[in-house]
TrEMBL record:
Histidine kinase/HSP90-like ATPase domain span: 279-389
Keywords, ordered alphabetically: Kinase, Transferase
Domain of life: Bacteria
Name assigned to this protein: Histidine kinase
Pfam family, one: HATPase_c
Upper taxonomic lineage: Bacteria, Bacillati, Actinomycetota, Actinomycetes, Kitasatosporales
Keyword Kinase: yes
Amino acid sequence: MSGFLAGLLIAALPLLASGFWLGRRTARPTGLGGLGTPVEHATFETLHTASLAAPPLRAGLTEETARRSARRLRSLLGTDALCLADDRQVLVWDGAGAHHRAEVMERLAGPLATGRGEAFPLGCHTPDCPVRWAVVAPLTVDDRVHGALVACAPRESAVLVRAAGEVARWVSVQLELADLDASRTRLIEAEIRALRAQISPHFIFNSLAVIASFVRTDPERARELLLEFADFTRYSFRRHGDFTTLADELHAIDHYLALVRARFGDRLSVTLQVAPEVLPVALPFLCLQPLVENAVKHGLEGRTDDCRIQITAQDAGAEALVVIEDDGTGMDPVLLRRILAGEVSPSGGIGLSNVDDRLRQVYGDDHGLVIETAPGAGMKITARVPKYQPGVHSAGRPTGT
């Protein structure tokens, strides 16, 4: 049980034993099996309500998330009113006494600056207003105050002060998780930008040079290659979604290989074998293309003979097994390990460490790349992609592709 729930139930235990919850009578449960006592029923209700309040808060503290979670949080505390505020404004007021919004916001300056909770009486001249007392509990993430939870009640209550503090700590945990989610998203976006930066200069200049060479001698061929180039760059620089489908990734690889073949001609031979049932599998965006580019680099550049690349995608039960193999120059396994560990510049393997890191982040350490290589022996890269993974789904093919 979390610190919030433990503290909340401990604080309320004397009242629960008497059948009350912060001044409100707790009905004896029926039809809940073994949850027969008021304490057991209150525990169940607290856990259930907390689970309903958590999802909105995992998106951060905004007017929308505050509105969606405030009623659940007020239910946890059993108060007449509850408000959530950031450092600029009251985001939501749930319950009675909304005319106290301005007064409460003025009193938040101290708690927001110091990060300490505070309780104070409310000056109210409305006879039928049930709100006479407010408890402020700051919401903090990484020792920085993001806002405050304010619980309002008819009278001063030590139990409410403690309970509001525990609820605020639980809300702070949800906001910290939201911040971690946002950091992870920014990291993924940064990694994708890094991949694009690796792909772009070398590949774009060579592709444009090849297209230019056909403009006068074979205009139709130049036109076809320009369309291939446009489709590939549109896919590579799209801005929506962290994930794509295996079908879309292979489609982009096909555009890429068309441009490479235009440059190297018959020196490049590519064999593609894909099981139709794995085409809808979702995987991280720009996950396979860097591996194919790596195969081209080690298979063709710096050599005068031909290169063969084989790409296979097979159904392996709960996973899709993708293998990219070339008969190129290969690599020293010790150097490869240092590249994957981030100890040396990845110039010897375009995007390998980036793709390996992303696969491990999404699917776990046992789903990193498996690479077999040796100097002069080519390279075989195997990626195991689970067919179904919670939170992993493709946004679909972007409009216009």
